Amino acid sequence: MAASRDFVSRKLHSLLGVIPLGLYVTQHLTVNYFATRGPEDFNAAAHFMESLPYRYLLEIFVIFLPLLFHAIYGVFIAFQSKNNVSTYGYLRNWMFYLQRISGVIVLIFVTWHVWQTRIQAAMGAEVNYQMMADILSNPGMMIFYIVGVVGTVFHFANGLWSFFVSWGLTVTPKSQRAMTYVTMVIFVALSFVGIRALFAFV
Amino acid sequence: MSEERTVTLKIKRQDGPESASYEESFTIPYRQNMNVISALMEIRRNPVNAKGEKTTPVVWEMGCLEEVCGACSMVINGKPRQSCTALIDHLEQPIRLEPMTTFPVVRDLAVDRSRMFDALKKVKAWIPIDGTYDLGPGPRMPENKRQWAYELSKCMTCGVCLEACPNVNSRSEFIGPAAVSQVRLFNAHPTGAMNKEERLEGLMDEGGLANCGNSQNCVQSCPKGIPLTTSIAAMNRATSLQTFKNFFGSDH
C-alpha cells in the first residue's frame, strides 16, 4: 500500500523546510554578512552567487519550487489548526502558534523581498550593496526587514525542532528538550548574523 | 454555623445535537468530599436552577467513577478532565461545566466520542488471534518492555488529548494522539508485532500521524500521564522507516 497523499505532503513539507530551504536561508544570511566587511566584499560575494553555473536551475529547484510548495501547503496547515494558547499556555503550544504566525509573516516578507530584489534584477536592475543601502535607508523598510529576517530565522530554527520529531530522530523528552536549546541557540545566532548584516547597509 | 454552605455550578447546556447551547446556574447544598458527579447527581435528584425554576436534569455520562473508563470527561473550569476525580473542595467556584468542544454534543455534557473509536479501528488497535484452532502460547515479552508498555495501556479513550490538541477539529481528519499511542502499544507486544505493518499503514493513511503539529498539549493534559509525545515521535520513526521499506523493499 502506498502512503497517503496526506502523509507524503506533510513529510515533504517538513523535509523541504530544512533541505533545501533552511540551508539556503543560512547561506543567504552568510553572504549578506559580507556587508559587514564593506561594499566591495559584499558586491564580490553577491557577484559570485549570481555568476554560479546553471544558476536558473539552482534557483528553480533549490529555491522557488520548494518555496512555493512549502508556502502554499504551509498556509493550508496554518489555517487548519485551532489555536488554543489561552487555555493551554505551555511552551511547545506557544511555539506551535508562533510557528504558524511566523510562517505567515515570512510569506509576506519573502514575497515582497523577491519582488524588490530578484524580480527587479530580472527587469534590469543591478543587485548590489547600493540597492540594499537604498532600500534600508527608509526606516520603515528597515523595521520591515528586521521583522522579516527574525521571523524567517525563528520559523527555520523552530521548524528544525519539529523536523527532528516528525522524522522520528528525537524520540525521548530528554532529546527533544536538548533540541529546544540547540534550535534556540541557532535562532539567536542567525538572528545576530541577519540583523548585523542589515545594519551594515546603513 | 449560621448559614448552610452551598456549591454553585454554571453549566453549559444543550437540549439536543442540533439545538443551540445556553447556560444554566445551579446552587446545591454542600456535602463533604463531593465531586462533580455527586453534584450533578444532586441536580438530577432535584432539578431546580439557581433562580428556583424547575428544569430538566443535566445529562452527563459516567461509568467506573474511579478514572479508568474515560466516560465522564468534560471541560471543568476551562480544562478537560474526568468529573469523577474533580473534587469540589479543589475547584474554584462558581464551577463551570462544559461539554468537550472537539466532539459532537449529544445532550448537555454528554458527547459522542465515535471519532476516537473509529480511529482505533483505522489503525487496527488490537491483536488478531482468533481462528479455527488453538495457536498455543505466544512469544514472551521482556519485562522491561512490559513495564513501559503498561503505561501506554492505561489509555481509556477519554478524549482529553483530542480536546487539547489544536490539530483535532472540525476542519481536520486527524485521528489524534490516543490512537497513535495505541499503535505503539500493540506493536510493542510480541504477538501484536506480527501485524505491525498493518497498523503503521493505518497511521500513514489520510488524517494519520503526519497531521501532528507537535504542540505537545496532549502529553500535558493526559490524566493518566501517558507519554503521548514519546509515542508520537516513536511512531514517526517507525512510519519513516516503513516508508523507506515500502519504497526500496525489505524482508525485515
Describe this structure in words.
The complex is a heterodimer of chains A (202) and B (252). Helices cover 80% and strands 0% of the residues of chain A. Chain A is mainly alpha-helical. In chain A, α1 (5-33) packs across α6 and α1 (5-33) packs across α7 (173-199). The N and C termini of chain A lie far apart (57 Å). Helix content of chain B is 32%, strand content 14%. Chain B is built from eight helices and seven strands; from the N terminus they run ββαβββββααααααα. In chain B, strands 2-1-5-3-4 form a five-stranded mixed beta sheet. A two-stranded antiparallel ribbon of chain B has the order 6-7. Chain B has helices at 36-45, 114-122, 143-152, 160-164, 177-188, 196-203, 217-221, 228-248, and strands at residues 6-14, 21-29, 73-76, 79-82, 95-98, 105-107, 110-111. Chain B has 252 residues and is an alpha+beta fold. Chains A and B meet through α1, α3, α4 and α6 of A and α7 and α8 of B.
What is the CA–CA distance across the termini of chain B?
73 Å
Instruction: Please write the string of helix (H) and strand (E) elements of chain A.
Output: HHHHHHH
The number of helices of chain A is 7
CATH top level label of the largest domain in chain B: Mainly Alpha
Report mean pLDDT of chain A, rounded to a whole number.
96
Gross morphology of chain B is elongated
What's the number of structural domains of chain B?
A: 2
* Strand content range of chain B: 5-15%
Rg of chain A, Å, rounded: 18 Å
Helix content of chain B: 25-40%
Number of helices of chain B: 8
Q: Which stretches of chain A are low in confidence, meaning pLDDT under 50 for 5 or more residues running?
A: none
Strand percentage of chain A lies at under 5%
